[in-house]
């Protein structure tokens, strides 16, 4: 039995479950998906401040997982922490931001990303840039909605994602990456209305982790992602 | 039953078989690997001239496959034809050059490619560049051997790949992509001697095709890779 | 007497003649232009599939020319084969795609390319990128016409090229490259209506080949474009 | 009186003091330097894992500073958190990584960075890349020492920095940035032995913050770095 | 007493005075600003021709300054001469083009430049490119006014700068650099009407020079900017 | 009769003659080469300071040529002034720096430049960058000689160029551009000793100018290189 952790970047367990359910649809019968929700951090992550807070919470959470899973999916789109997870774990770690791009690139000449709020755009751009994947990104487009509006009306939100996708296509995208995770029903809605393939990052990342495990591949430990040295680290405890 | 074609770029059936055997190791039990060898072209492809000849042969071969397989692996490292295959087929097409990079990038900060002969280096660089994957490539290193030497002594050839890998690591690579296909035993040899993950393009491409099929994803048809128009094309017949 | 072959990428002899006629206008009195039309391939090339087919046909045709001409113009805009021709021939080879850019760049800060159909855009971008000439390309704009419409009404087609040129100028182009070959009368039409220099790739490539010949320069043979090794290659025969 | 906080990325107060002392040397007489040490996190930061932990600790610390200082120097070289600080604060925030590059670039054609350990190199590269400053970076070179060796012998450490600087110069650097903070005496040692200007990030960042304050300039709040929305964030309490 | 020269690129003394007055607002009480106007050259610089003429005039002027000032601000936005000044002087030299970008970059994700006339755009782009600062430049926008119109109506000119700033913001700029010098009142006008920080190049460059002087930093002399060799140079005399 | 001016960047008439003689070898029988030497400036140009001085002198000289020639070759390798000449003249202007690259690029995968002194390297890099031609430049290598040594012993100088060329080839160059002008006999010496094509910038630029003239092409005047406005410019007179 292969065990793959799907780790949410925020503390909202329902979003973890949505992501884990998506992951379960793409794996083989011998794979168990382990949903993981940090016990502290942010209810939802928008912006660098939230992202750095969530990165610390996720990394502390991942420390506890070492030795219990065969691979990790980091299910925060554009969120930080990816490289830290690669240092502390010996199993393969895939971030949904990069995975969506890896799967989108062979499907069309350029891809676009659609995401929730404006302030996520810069983070996603940085995440794709440092992963070496920005070259074929035609556009990263937000819905133009505020955080509160996103929660308010799932249908309006989904339609705003469709509109963002159409703008990305107009900018040259031939494939669309869903720049979020844990929004139930969004993927089907967007797929139905756009004339291009729509890639879900959780599905893509889970498939990549499974494939890496089956090929016996994991993070290189010679240099950047060598295991951290033991030292005095004062991990905070949630009060 | 899912059927994935593994299409060699040259006419040497034994290399097709080696690639197909590698592909079989990474797929689920419900996947059939279909080895395909072009009936004309080059016995082995080294350089652009060979590559363009092989691209035409492979594309003619792929035309005959349409409707009979669920996805295609193009098993020529650095060889041409990828985009043409995406036009004429409706199923997903993955080239081993890009697949190796897609799987290598999340495993380390930069990757390197080791390949057979000097004249392959430029082609591989172009292939990675047009796929948008060159940014994190630390080096593409050839064995320094001539074509005849490659065939002569498999052990010496494998050792030359190891030496090339060490040079790539010195240039910053933390992961190595095997820049060839169909050389039996090479992967194990190189893995045993290098301190970093070694990615095989056939395995990576096959896993990507399988994952795309399972996710219902295929080539975008809105623009670059729309089906070719019917027109007068005089495909040559092998004499 | 200097002999320069102008090699069409498709099988339509009238287009070869139009290109050859354009070439004759720019050469010295001691230069003979040799029109060459492949005997198989595509009636017109649109997209990668056509391009790879035409590349094989052109390369086979060029093999037969070796020793009979002093230089070669490859007259397919954005089509493949350039690097292969440099391997198999010892005389200089210039592709009209690159030549147009080489002549456009010193005439303005950025250049634009206007071409026939949408699917040519990506190919032209790749061709300029791998030639190292994309940096100063402001835009590659297609006419928006379908293949059939292009043949239908030469005046409407020429006007569509003018409109595409105006869009390229709006995107920053100060010079326009005609991204096609063999369309009689198009160059004059576009030049008359645009306020910027209009570069014809056939004229530019022919002038470059003539200049290289007169300077005693030809393809470097030390590495990328060394002559292919003798080996078993099964060139198909047109049936 | 202008108040500028110099915020260490780790919990070692002696390093904060060294940085604050350096800052005091460059400011006007009406500027007070406020040393700030996070109460939790890492004793020293090496690698992404440490960096993400320290970023969360620093950001929580900065939240408490809002309204009490006129500008902030983030004194961790290559460490994360910069963009988050810009979101939560209304006063200007300068990171020593970017500041060193900003001051080095006008002093020579290319600059180099010398840093402690190998695993810092990738982080520094990412930090300079996302700040838009990597283009003129000739090299980022580590001392080759382990973490323990760094603490052991200050003279040997300083000499290792000099050797790293010489390698950076050989790679094209005409100016050297000290890629660390809080190492007493290092700057003088390196300056004495290298034939090029040596830029200290703390000094550069403090000068930039002072200049921004005097010009009435602070972070743009229209988009990327708008203040975070109020929401449920569970900041951990150090146990 | 620190002496910083503010050197105009043109011969219009009133513009020198406006720039010097701006510089005086940002320096410490122990800093004297020395306004310098070339005795020959152009009344105003628009385009490369003017810029190269002014560069020669400015460099001849700077030769006479050596040993009399502690640093130099080159107050021509996008004008040439920067690197030559670094060769002939031993004190730090900062150009207002680069300084504006250095101060703008930490204030927002991308910056924009607003400038007078269309032909300045290319020069500014080249100046930022060769300084390694173009990566985060979202747009360089001109007012669309002719040279004569600029002089005609200061209010209309200032409003045209505001409109250019709004276009730059629409293109992604979160900070605006004023791409000119010596226009009295412009900075305040634009700051009042745009929702983002507005950086003045003269202020930024003067602050950088002052900071470099206080840190004992000056131009690297090992390579690119080593002092010119004595040789026969025939500097023209203004007739 | 076509008249092409070959304009030296320095005041040494013997170098102008060497360049003009080279130009005469490549043009048709109906082309007259007009050697032009500035009456003031530098005896030889090394570095930015010399280059800006020479640019002003050359531009003043070119003003006097307008209407008397059909095209201009600017025969200073890496020297400034190119864009200014395009503004003030209506005939085509080609700089030998760019021309060498334009002719080298189609002859091999990457080109290298060999030049006299170290301080020329940065200038040449900037010149190729702003011309959009740096992408395929493998290396710019200087001879390591001082200015005085260059004049001393032509044979030793030529051998130093050969050694620089070998280093460029080791760095990936498959074609070499001679990064200087007016050194009699150098081209033959280097060609004889290097295994790759050697491109002379004067020959390349002259051929490009001739070809542009024959095709009726000249500088675009819509934007960047529009004719300068009449205004007060105080051109100095050589005393």
UniProtKB/TrEMBL annotation, chains A, B, C, D, E, F:
GO function term, MF aspect, one: amino-acid racemase activity
A Pfam family it matches: Asp_Glu_race
Record family assignment: Belongs to the HyuE racemase family.
Protein name as annotated: Allantoin racemase
Organism classification: Bacteria, Bacillati, Actinomycetota, Actinomycetes, Micrococcales
